[in-house]
Design a protein that fits this description.
This protein is α+β, with helices and mostly antiparallel strands. The protein has 2 domains: about 10-60; about 75-295, no CATH class. The chain contains 3 helices and 12 strands; from the N terminus they run H-H-E-E-E-E-H-E-E-E-E-E-E-E-E. It has helices at about 25-60, 70-80, 165-175, and strands at about 105-115, 120-135, 145-150, 155-160, 185, 215-225, 230-240, 245-250, 255, 260-265, 270-275, 290-295. The strands form 2 sheets. It has a 7-stranded mixed β-sheet with strand order 3-4-1-12-11-10-9, with no helix packed on it. The N and C termini lie far apart (about 80 Å). Mean pLDDT is about 75; it is low at about 1-5, about 15-25, about 60-80, about 190-195, about 200-205 and about 280-290. Keywords: Membrane, Transmembrane, Transmembrane helix.
């Protein structure tokens, strides 16, 4: 069978446009259909081979023949990871520049991280990768959204943001984490009370945050006297309770110890940083928005 225009697709071999045959029409039609399908398949294979050669030639010339297929997980990561230096509102941008809407007010929220006695931190840095805040709330409108500074041998992690609880913030904080396995709150570990003044007895159950004011996820780095401690994918969030705000921290390389009072996080350098709630320690100067931390081998 010949075809000046090229072989027909295989499905056309079963159309009503069949040759007029005499004698043994049924047998001849069946043979014709078989031959037609064979020719169509050969033509399709030849077409695919030609396309493959064209793609190879294009790649040898240095021109990309097609856009690589992006996996769903890669698309999700690209959608949730803010571009460095991006100014605007979360979650698309995390470096600040979000004015908020209406009569919302930006606050300077300071998380105090105090080195344990005997530990000395020279500098500390923070790099935000993802962030979340309640819609229409300001984020870094009056300065950098998140920054750290060492003052009086203590590390202050400052978040300039509005304060309004929202469940999406809690979901962003818990993403990739397991509660209570690798998260720690500054004031939730109490029986019948939500404040450190009520005592140090641990609760018999754990409830992860249902709502938070805001969340930032990034890399926290401490530079001690002789070592550097880098904590990637470190989660920081602020919530609100009856007696004020509280802070949540966590990380994929962290685990809760000592009945939930400590969070032990493995660093990129192979050491560990232990965070402890101030209220779990016998200290005179207690602060509900603070953690004690120290480097362990």
């Amino acid at each position: 069978m010949s075809n000046a225009e090229g072989a027909a697709p295989a499905e056309q071999c079963f159309s009503d446009k069949q040759p007029l045959l005499s004698g043994g029409a049924g047998t001849e039609i069946a043979r014709w259909r078989s031959a037609c399908v064979l020719v169509a398949l050969v033509a399709a294979a030849a077409s695919a081979a030609t396309a493959a050669l064209a793609v190879r030639a294009a790649s040898q010339r240095g021109a990309p023949p097609f856009r690589p297929v992006q996996l769903a997980s890669e698309e999700a990561a690209a959608a949730t990871t803010a571009a460095p230096g991006c100014k605007g509102c979360p979650p698309a941008c995390c470096d600040g520049g979000c004015e908020g809407a209406g009569r919302t007010k930006e606050r300077t929220n300071t998380l105090l991280l105090a080195p344990k006695s005997g530990s000395t931190v020279g500098t500390a840095t923070w790099s935000t990768e993802t962030c979340e805040i309640t819609p229409k709330q300001p984020w870094g409108a009056q300065g950098p959204a998140v920054e750290v500074a060492v003052q009086k041998e203590r590390v202050n992690l400052v978040v300039r943001a509005g304060r309004k609880n929202h469940k999406s913030n809690a979901a962003a904080f818990l993403k990739g984490l397991e509660a209570p396995g690798n998260i720690l709150a500054s004031t939730w570990l109490r029986t019948g009370c939500e404040h450190w003044l009520c005592g140090t007895a641990p609760v018999t159950h754990f409830r992860p945050p249902e709502q938070l004011n805001f969340v930032a996820v990034g890399t926290l780095t401490f530079k001690f006297t002789n070592k550097t401690a880098t904590l990637p994918n470190f989660h920081v969030g602020q919530g609100h309770m009856n007696l004020g705000n509280n802070w949540w921290i966590g990380g994929t390389a962290c685990e809760v110890t000592k009945e939930g009072f400590d969070l032990l996080c493995k660093t990129e350098e192979g050491d560990r940083v232990r965070f402890s709630t101030l209220s779990s320690l016998d200290l005179d100067a207690q602060h509900e928005e603070a953690f004690i931390f120290n480097l362990e081998p």
